[in-house]
Amino acid sequence: MFTGIIEETGKIESVANGNKSAIITIIADKVLKGTKIGDSIAVNGVCLTVTSISGNKFTADVMAETIRRSSLGTLKHGSKVNLERAMAADGRFGGHIVSGHIDGTGVIRSLEREDNAVWVEIETPDKLLKYIVEKGSIAIDGISLTVAKLTDDSFSVSVIPHTGE
């Protein structure tokens, strides 16, 4: 389980594509402190298992189902990714409880500044939209957010500057 509060932004060092799967190597710092092989790290919100650690890098396997349902299949050398370690039971639970199991993707329809926040409207297929509720929580690239608006084919969130960074 995760909170959707991003600990750091990592960088893709390499993607070794299989027929339908991949092995990714990510350069990180903070999320590797105390991490061991077999631990879970959310990469853009996708719960992945650490398969190796070397210095400031870790690798994870990405199966075909994950590539079909997430944006991880678009990653390449140099891509930035949001990273979060699994939540510890002895810490504070900021954000929302997030499983790291991805339901699908959407397309950013618009970005609109309102004072110190940015409204992000995301077009989403009906098969996903039916599960999204106004004032409910949602994770976008692993970031926990609150659904502020809902239409027949999209939802919107309002992002504060700290989250936007």
Describe what you observe in this structure.
- The strands form 2 sheets. Strands 1-2-5-4-3-6 form a 6-stranded antiparallel beta barrel.
- The two termini are 23 Å apart.
- It contains 3 helices and 11 strands.
- The chain is globular, with a radius of gyration of 16 Å.
- A hairpin with a 2-residue loop joins strand 7 and strand 8.
- The chain has 2 domains: 8-85, Elongation Factor Tu (Ef-tu), domain 3, CATH 2.40.30.20; 107-164, Elongation Factor Tu (Ef-tu), domain 3 (Beta Barrel), CATH 2.40.30.
- The protein is mainly beta and 165 residues long.
Number of strands: 11
Instruction: Tell me which oligomeric state these chains represent.
Output: single chain
Please state the average pLDDT score: 94
Strand percent estimate: 35-45%
The level 1 CATH classification of the largest domain is Mainly Beta
Structural class: mainly beta
How are helices and strands ordered from N to C? Answer: EEEEEHEEEHEEEH
How are strands sequenced across the largest beta sheet?
A: 1-2-5-4-3-6
Q: What distance separates the N and C termini?
A: 23 Å
Q: What would you call the shape?
A: globular
Radius of gyration: 16 Å
Helix content: under 10%
